[in-house]
Amino acid sequence: MSASAIDDAPTQRQLTLNILRYDPRNPASKPHMQKYRIEEADSMTLFIALTEIREHQDSTLQFDFVCRAGICGSCAMMVNGRPQLACRVLTRDLPDEITLAPLPFFELIADLSVFTGKWMRGMSERLQTWLHAQEREIDLCRIEERMDPDLAEQIYELDRCIECGCCIAACGTAQMRHDFVGAVGLARLARFRLDPRDTRTDDDYYDLIGDDTGVFGCMSLLACQDVCPKSLPLQTQIAFLRRKMAAQGL
Ligand code: SF4
Ligand code: SF4
Ligand code: FES
Q1: Closest Cα to atom 6, ligand 1: which residue?
Q2: By alpha-carbon position, which residue is closest to atom 3 of ligand 3?
């Protein structure tokens, strides 16, 4: 290799990761920032960077990953103050100093790991986010009814939610009141309201979200839609629900 080719070779950046460490189950643990330095690799994601740290520098660092493909929603964390899926964030899109913290609002397990599933389950039970069909007896031999493809597409669009919790972490209302169902809860109900197989009426939906813990608690500042990694049409759905629920409440 010629001297000029060596000169032209891109130099690898040294990354500094400042990570909020805290284990609430350990009485000796106190919240503090811990600094780690690693060499950036080509196409490095935050998942790879954190794995590198855990394997070679600090085996006690806790964080969650399952799919590494933006599908399971388990790796959401605050990346330089913004909720993001760490498996989808390339370090080359970040400055060389990166601050990581767990999502706020959710129960902390330790370090970057939070218990989103527990809250999501509670929200789901409270809002009854399952199909309320007419028939009590399920007939497995019955041919499925046809659905208008455009409507099926709209329902599918909302079903793409991966329950990552980014919309809740970015939501001003959720930070002020823990009983707010958030964009994720409102989008779940909007999905069932669209579904012609669901027998619930707007009166039933009003009972579930017709107050400040539901659609009237939303301040419409759009942070949820800005951070949603699946680009769900959250604002359109929340605005539509709010109009329907306001009409219902008159
Ligand atoms: S609506 Fe978007 S940000 Fe909120 S939980 Fe679902 S995928 Fe995540
Ligand atoms: S628009 Fe509503 S649900 Fe979305 S972040 Fe703002 S207050 Fe929360
Ligand atoms: S690990 Fe599944 S979404 Fe990131």
Answers
A1: 161
A2: 70
pLDDT tens-digit map of 195-206: 999 999 999 999
Amino acid at 27: P
- pTM of the model as a whole: 0.92
Domains and CATH numbers, the chain: 9-114 (3.10.20.30), 116-249 (1.10.1060.10)
Distance CA 163, CA 118 (A): 11
Whether 221 and 183 have beta carbons less than 8 Å apart is answered as no
Residue 218 CB less than 6 A away from ligand 3 = no
Helices (DSSP H) in the chain: which residue ranges?
A: 3-8, 46-56, 116-127, 149-159, 166-169, 172-176, 182-194, 202-209, 223-227, 234-249
* HSE (side-chain half, CA atoms, 13 Å) at 13: 16
15-19, 110-114, 194-198: which range is least confident on average? 194-198
Q: Is 228 in the pocket of ligand 2 (CB under 6 A)?
A: no
Distance 119 CA to ligand 2 centre (A): 17
Relative to the alpha carbon of 219, which ligand is closest?
2
Ligand 2 centroid distance, CA of 235 (Å)? 8
